[in-house]
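Q: Convert this sequence to structure tokens.
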Amino acid sequence: MMRMSRTLTFILLPLLLLVGTPGAFAEEGGGLPSANTNIHDQASLQRGARLFFNYCVGCHSLKYLRYSRMAADLGLTEQQVMENLDFTGARFGDPVISAMPAADAQKWFGKDPPDLSLEVAAKGADWVSAYLHSFYLDPTSQVGWNNTVLVNAAMPFPLWELQGIQTAVMGPAQDGLPPQVEKLVLKQAGSMTPVQYDQAVRDLVSFLQYASEPAALERTHIGAWVVLYLALFTFFAFLLKKEYWKDVH
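A:
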């Protein structure tokens, strides 16, 4: 029984280390609600791509992602991509670049909108999801909107037609500090219910997570074969070790 236990440990320990390693380096949510993204849900990625190109690409680029790569990864044809997702006249092999002139961006927002290729990789899916849930109407802001996750964000809310319009309920001023946002209230419904909007944000953030590292899809598929190979290699290595040591007492 003891020998069998040691044998299983010898075989399974490398596999457990492989499975456990990604979790050790996983991003922390920082107390934010989980985005529940899934880059392996192709339908979700397709919906997220549609949302990005309809609501975000007017200002934001994905300069590290090419239309052709996106088509291959998301199961789309060249015709589907160029007819439904190309609004800038780009070629199929070009990267996703916003058509907004830098001068206009400076005039309207005070700075260039950031490229979103690595947004999820830099800030985490939970942060981006919370950000897209936390816009509220703010007449004192230059762009008319504010955000509780990124205060004074120089960005109008592109998804307000979907979520609706939120307003802020301010708490009392304390210790000489200005009042802080206590909670957000949906004052005007959008075209989506809250549940539908949650799903839309999940799709969009999943797509941005994919865009941050397109190779993750291929790496996951290869990883399954690597784990299988290591399991077989470990098993045969154990048999070889047993053969070498059978006469040693």
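The chain has ten helices and six strands.
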